[in-house]
Amino acid sequence: KQEVTQIPAALSVPEGENLVLNCSFTDSAIYNLQWFRQDPGKGLTSLLLIQSSQREQTSGRLNASLDKSSGRSTLYIAASQPGDSATYLCAVTKAAGNKLTFGGGTRVLVKP
Amino acid sequence: GAVVSQHPSRVICKSGTSVKIECRSLDFQATTMFWYRQFPKQSLMLMATSNEGSKATYEQGVEKDKFLINHASLTLSTLTVTSAHPEDSSFYICSPLQRGGGQETQYFGPGTRLLVL
Question: For residues B116 and B13, is the Cβ–Cβ distance under 8 A?
């Protein structure tokens, strides 16, 4: 059974610092991995999707890496801003169109 | 991106009553729908997967007679929490799957917060 773990569970940084969020999964036979953002009481916003054959994806200040063999992904957010405060979730799926298995999330607070 | 709506966005009900949550994919057809549940400060847990026109497949530990899922059309799926109890209070999120062009993309609804008194 796939298990996804996110460390740390919570993170507080001053504005301008870079954020590093970690995600690990127990079964390396994944199809893809996604990073999501969730604001309090809201749904999910997809940030980045990495296919199993890829090693990283970038979008603006966000960069996500994937090391499938070791079961790890890292989300980097450069030059953090207060608006980046949210919960960040990673999720994996083992096949196209299959369910997502989510990690517990990392709650991020960026202090002005 | 695709638009997914959920109604209601929040609902408060008395213990023992039933609550229906609607999920609509407004600009695409979804043959598959995932329903997730999220307890406070926890992650999303899959409850069930439904395919249009067929019975839903429930995850272990999720009672199919308590959480009724109807996926009668390609743009609408409903989740009914029957005889709700306080422990059913949670955030329910639907996730329709869009297939096309050789790709599958999961979108997420904005969620429904259920509070059972």
Answer: yes
Contacts of residue B90, Cβ cutoff 8 Å, sequence gap at least 6: B37, B38, B39, B113, B114
Contact B108 A44 (CB under 8 A): yes
List the Cα angle A65/A86/B5 in 5-degree steps. 100
User: Cβ of B2 under 8 Å from any chain A Cβ?
Assistant: no
Summarised one tens digit per residue, pLDDT across range A52-89 is 999 999 999 999 999 999 999 999 999 999 999 999 99
Spatial contact of B112 and B92, defined as CB atoms under 8 Å apart:
yes
B1: confidence class by pLDDT, cuts 50, 70, 90: low
Number of cross-chain residue pairs from A and B with Cβ atoms under 8 Å apart: 42
Q: What is the pLDDT of residue A41?
A: 85
Of A91, A23, A48, the residue nearest B46 (C-alpha)? A91
Q: Are B50 and B57 in contact (CB under 8 A)?
A: yes
Cβ contact (<8 Å) for A97 and B104?
yes
Give contacts of B 57-116 with A, CB under 8 A.
Answer: 91, 93, 95, 97, 99, 103-104, 106, 108-111, 113
Longest Cα pair distance anywhere in chain B, in angstroms?
Answer: 46
